[in-house]
Fold:
Amino acid sequence: MSESLVLAVPSKGRLQENANAFFARAGLKLAQGAGARDYRGKLVGVSGVEVRYLSASEIASQLASGAAHLGVTGEDLIRETLPDVRGQVELLTPLGFGNATVVVAVPQAWIDVRVMADLDEVAATMRTRHGRRLRVATKYVNLTRRFFAETGVADYRIVESLGATEGAPAAGSAEIVVDITTTGATLAANALKILDDGIILRSEANLVASLKAPWGEGQRNALRAVLGRISAEERARTTREVRAAMPESGGIDLATLAGLHEAELPYGAPAGPDGEIVLRCPEAAMFDLTDALVAAGARAVSVRRIDYAFAAENPLAERLLTRLRT
Ligand SMILES: Nc1ncnc2c1ncn2[C@@H]1O[C@H](COP(=O)(O)OP(=O)(O)OP(=O)(O)O)[C@@H](O)[C@H]1O
Ligand SMILES: O=P(O)(O)OC[C@H]1O[C@H](OP(=O)(O)OP(=O)(O)O)[C@H](O)[C@@H]1O
Ligand SMILES: [Mg+2]
Structure:
């Protein structure tokens, strides 16, 4: 087991479903051990991988310590939990789900408080007039400290919150909050507003690799297999395959035509026996390419989506392996 790559996936919460869908798209089927309460599993058809089901915040800590090699979690949790993000992990790719923003929010009733500088004044006044410090409810203690220091707010105290943070001002346990928001509904329901310059971090779920985990030969091979499929799916999703029956005697320079339309000839330039050529291009360029092929004398042109586009390069794995070498 010690040579296995540990892949940490969210076991609950809002990231779970999307993370499963992401792996499924890449052809990586997660097989959970016997029963829904078994928090370990495997990847069907990929050897040398141990799947661990953990909460999103636990995934951040395990990547930090090196107990997990790869994981899916929110960037907010990575930046909150890890003291040295660059030295501990590599954020391989954003995943397009789990979008949320970490913000500073104050009571809507504070009409004169719009920016962080106003907050500094409020804090100073509270201190001199009432002899107490402004209280900030949050579970993002480190992000808050860093951001408040950067924006010059010093006279405050953090009240650590374990949930329902937005309720703290109404409950009287803090004056303001730092929390995550997506739709803004929870802030609005609690009569809070975001400060104009109070955006600490825009976060989404990321595929993250640990630089602290033991990367032996077995784990590196498993990494190439897993990331190879993820890259192949990513490449395929943004690409269209264009086939065309070209006239034998066309005399057109296919390589130049492809180059003009951001296309490539993955199987080479010479036409097949029946004059069929295969190109690949970005989705956005496909109609320009098909028009150009027709203009060049193509008899039939078809466009299709592809499931996977494997290539010699494995950009995600290479990025990480390069980091591990330095
Ligand atoms: N509206 C949202 N509120 C909170 N988190 C969100 C939201 N949208 C996306 N996320 C992301 O999902 C991550 C995990 O949040 P989620 O609430 O699903 O976890 P959880 O299992 O409930 O953990 P916890 O009990 O600590 O909240 C967040 O850190 C963030 O990256
Ligand atoms: O801007 P909105 O779309 O309203 O979403 C934001 C809310 O969602 C999250 O809470 P969650 O439901 O995860 O409960 P929790 O506080 O127990 O984690 C977060 O902590 C906010 O309270
Ligand atoms: Mg939550």
Remarks:
- Residues 100-203 form a domain with the D-Maltodextrin-Binding Protein; domain 2 fold (CATH 3.40.190.10).
